[in-house]
Amino acid sequence: MNDSPSLTLVLLIGVLVAVGVVLLLERSLSRVLLGFIVMSNGVNLMILAMAGTMGGPPVLWFTEPQDMTDPLPQAMILTAIVITLGVTAFLLAMAYRSWQLEGNDEVQDDAEDLRIVQGEGRRTLRRRFVRERRRLKADIRRQRAELQATIAAADAQELAEQARIKAEIARAQAELARYEAEAEESGMDEQSQETMRRLSDRAETMTAQVQELRGRIRLGRRRLREHRRADRAAERELWRELRRRVRAQRRQAGQTMRAERERLARAEDSDLQGSD
């Protein structure tokens, strides 16, 4: 005896359940009702197919126990039919009431759900902006540390260079003073004058190098101050953008809530007029 259902019955069950699910996903209550009925019929057929082959009625003294049909699927199908009838009546009442209030049977968006979704959207936006702000602050701190390290290295290099140049200037001045003293004692010749000119030029060159290094340090510090101002301006702009978006979200939520309240007020007015 073959207990497996036929392929036609299996395909019919699949088609009924698929059509029912598609109709249940619609916004119209009429289509939802049709989808529920079609899907319930498909499920009932599936339960019936699971019962196996047909047998005698499950009544003692009329049928042998081994020849009886399983009574459990039949009881489940009867219960499902009763439940389907009750849900069908409930959906019909909802569709009729929606038609009275709105002129259609489409399921409207719930104002509380919209408020929750928009609140979650605002929280997500706020969390994203907080992450952006933290990332921006981390970048600012990193760039500031790099600039400070660069400035510290430049300062150290400047100090070392200044010390070296000062030592050379002092040595050149000492040599110049010695040559001047020797020139005063023995008379200045052309070689001594050339040496003094070279020493004077060298001292002036070293002084110019010191001034150039100081100018570079001042330029680096000026760039650091400009970078800090730009970072603070970018942070302020980020906060302004965050506030603008939050205000826009609040305005949109307020408009949605007002529209929903107006819709409910119109529905109540039409209900009162109909009852009068």
Molecular shape: elongated
Largest sheet: none
Structural class: mainly alpha
Strand content: under 5%
Q: N- to C-terminal separation?
A: 67 Å
Number of strands: 0
What this model shows, in words?
By secondary structure, the protein is an all-alpha fold. It has two domains: 7-102, Helix Hairpins, CATH 1.10.287; 111-264. It contains five helices and no strands.
Concise summary:
By secondary structure, the protein is an all-alpha fold.
Main attributes?
276 residues; mainly alpha; Helix Hairpins; 2 domains; 5 helices; 0% strand; elongated; coiled coil; CPA3_antiporter_subunitC; Multicomponent Na+:H+ antiporter subunit C; cell membrane
Task: Furnish the topology, listing elements before pairings.
Blueprint: H1 7-24, H2 29-50, H3 71-102, H4 111-186, H5 190-275
